[in-house]
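Researcher: I'm preparing a figure for a lab meeting and need a structural model of a single chain. I don't have an experimental structure, so a prediction will have to do for now. The sequence is pasted below. Please return the structure as tokens so I can convert it later.
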Amino acid sequence: MEINIEKELQSLKSDYNTFKAELDRQETLNERFFKSLRKRPAMAISKEIRDRMLGDVVTVPMIIVICIGIDWPILFGILVSLWALADLGVSLWVSRKLGMDHLLNDDVRTVTEKIAGYRKFYAGSLIAGIVPLTAMLTYIFMHLYARTDDPDTIRLITASGIVSIVLAVVITLLQYKKHVKRCKELLEQFEER
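Model: Understood. Here is the structure written out token by token.
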């Protein structure tokens, strides 16, 4: 009788160890699965930052070439380039500060704070960009109007400017809406956990 109890205890212990190992393996699989689910919106947010910085880097030489090519004042090119470099610096600083490269390596609270911080930065940068953008567009239109006396050309410049500005605003709002949706998806995934 004692031998049966001992064998049964050993069998139960063996079953328990097997069950525990299987449970640990399942937890690891679940953790990988949840991390992969979160990775898609997190990668999209990181990609937004990289694309923004790439756009800033490309802007600098392009605006100088454009200014030289169409005989515009180089001061305009320098000012636009400084704006792009400032945006690049701020984007790089925020990316490093929030640790967006290693977004999913922290605990839920830290990740949530990082995402909220990035959303705040993104909205703030759009609002802050309105002033230099308005100054740049005003300069462009004043310069174009000064180059022509023909009323039809002036109407064409005005119409194309209005269409371009409206199109740029719509694209920016759609990108912002998409950005907010990605951040929300990521935050919801962390809240579900």
